[in-house]
Amino acid sequence: MNGYYSGQILARVDELADPCAIVVRTDEYVTLIVTRRGETFAAFRNKCPHAGYPLQRADGRVIVQEGRYMVCAAHGASFGLSDGACAGGPCNGDGLESVAIVVRDGVVSVA
Length: 111
Ligand code: FES
Hints:
The protein is mainly β. Helices cover about 0% and strands about 40% of the residues. The chain is globular. It binds FE2/S2 (inorganic) cluster (FES).
């Protein structure tokens, strides 16, 4: 059990700002992060490789910097919006775990 399933709808493309990183709840215990940068979309498990916290701030928003990085609210690790790769801070080279998606008919779904 991953906490999400193939075909599960995560977001509508027209609801995703460019750029953005949003938190999407997929079951009672699991949230994913869905990102957009231009026409590139991606999804990741919402678990920072530094200390395992979710990335969002207390208000539920994920910080996006320079239009291409998301920043973990806990201790400031930053990750590429499109690939989840560590881009600085205490992630020490470890990136976010990708979740395969499909974008079709204006909808982002789990592959
Ligand atoms: S848990 Fe994300 S930077 Fe520490």
